[in-house]
Amino acid sequence: QVQLVESGGGLVQLGGSLRLSCAASGFTFSNYVLNWYRQAPGKERELVAQSTTFGSTSYVDSVKGRLTISRDNAKNTMYLQMNSLKTEDTAIYYCNAKRWLDSMSSAIWGQGTQVTVSS
Known about the structure:
Blueprint: E1 3-7, E2 10-13, E3 18-25, E4 32-39, E5 46-51, E6 57-59, E7 67-72, E8 77-82, E9 91-99, E10 108-109, E11 113-118
Parallel strand pairs: 2-11
Antiparallel strand pairs: 1-3, 3-8, 4-5, 4-9, 5-6, 7-8, 9-10, 9-11
């Protein structure tokens, strides 16, 4: 059974840092595009960071310079390092893995982890 398990969410102060982890099992991690999504109450789910199979990364403009996606294929684990956190970063964060040519309906999703930035 393919699975993604997230950890590292919690409550942090404005301007603080947090690192989310997402451990994969049951599939070949290196063959997948990796993504971090987030969803705040009443808003659409938003793609915030992506890591391709060949190592390039991309980010939504609102998190550039503050959030960093990384992957460790040997450990089957992906990370989201979050620095200089703002209240607008408060959301449920979901890790996601998808083969390059597959549709989104076949993507693997984590259960989500809550990140709350206090002020």
